[in-house]
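FAQ: What does a multi-protein file look like?

Like this. Sequence, then tokens, then the next protein.
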Amino acid sequence: MDNLLSIILKKYGQHHDNPYVIALTGSVAVGKSTIAREIANRLAQSAAGLTVSVISVDAFIFPNQELVKRDIFQEKGFPQSYNLTALSNKIGELKKGAASVSVPVYSQSINDIAVNKYEKIKAAKILIIEGVTALRIHDYDLSIYIDADTSLVYQWFLKRTLAFIDNSRQDPNSFYYPLSHMTPAKQLTLIDQTWRKTDLKNLTEFIEPMKKEADIIVHKTDRHQIDKITMTKSVSSNCPRSLKK
């Protein structure tokens, strides 16, 4: 992580406009939100006055009702299920000097955009956009792809989904509540179907092809440990193309 932060700070130092936009993407369950928050926190601590904000692209996914209306609910998470124009507009407002912007809130509990709930994103010197479609906005200055073996990503996806189900047992409003009262075998069957028909398809057809667009590839191994950081020639300049964490 220290090497990644050094690269970001070096590139940020060569940039003279605010905000400096970092797009961070990768598969579902690969740990994008966690690593984005860690990068934001550590960057903010690295220098006095360095401010960092994070926007999740999930805030711009169409509500479930709209996805059903468009007959693309089964493609939730695919590029066409996001309002990327609205996301780009918010980034544009911050670039034009807005003190803050309000964005919708995506609730993992209900698996949908929360009604009448918004998050205020403050203007910052560095803005991180994280999510499965982050590299499709084309409004960024630096792009990062979080990579891992597909078998590991599936294990993380399974573990996370089972945690959502377990935490929903006493919450009838949760999207996962009906699953919490199924047998473990039925739960596993449905999770595997979702992975193969939606998340794996999204990864192979839409997310992974964006890896070639990334300036930095961060590879993760067991327990989400970073074992390698690979940079493109334009980013590495005088640095080695591949660094251990």
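And here is the next protein:
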Amino acid sequence: MYSKITKTFKTNRENNYKEVDVRSMPFEKVALYRKYLLFENEIPDELKESVIEALKIVDFDQKEKQEEPLLCLIGFIRSCGAIDLMVVQRQAQKYGLDLRSLETNPLFNFWTYHTFDYLIPDDTYGEAILYYDSIPYMDVIANTRLDYELMAPVFLKPESYLSIFYNGYDDTDPDVHELFDHFKKSEDVFDFLKMERILECIESCRMTEHLITIFPKLEQFDPKTKELFKKAIYKMPMPYLTGMALQCYPSK
């Protein structure tokens, strides 16, 4: 991720430090804003010299390769919203990572949150790792899961979790890719907002089977978008299913 953020710095430098289009690199810009390294219109003056020096020494390809296993793990956590600590530990081991050593890792701590207040099915509270943006939905995730049969997570390929980390969805799946590519290529500015609402409803556990049936009408999808949505949405991981897609859930 740091390599991609530094590339964003490079783009800003090439644009005389002016802000780049939010639709062109939304993920990297969000990260920069969160770290207070990018403000309304430009990178702060006091950081410009450091940016120039960093661009001289960073090996983008090597850094990105080094970060990949950790980003896959964070992508897994993002797909779940909140997940039991032991499950994260087992998934970390698959990527050659030790969860204990990640407790002091700045990249891991930037995107995740360790809580002791996660509501588990027996009405007690336990440990869990949350994707940072899912913190406001922690109780919603826990309570919505009670409506579904408790099942072991269905794990995706590492490249799927890497895509989820960067995009919020699995762009390696052809149907999911086609839906979001359709939104991105649309000249209608409201289509970008509709794309964001899909991701927001997934993250907040509102994209249940009931909402899926009426969502195209609520968002006034045209026939083409409605068709793409129906093909893709059942293949997208849902936090209330512990990162499982609805097509894998027994009711589907």
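Q: Is there any per-entry metadata?
A: Some entries carry free-text notes. For the entry above: Residues 60-80 form the longest helix (21 residues).
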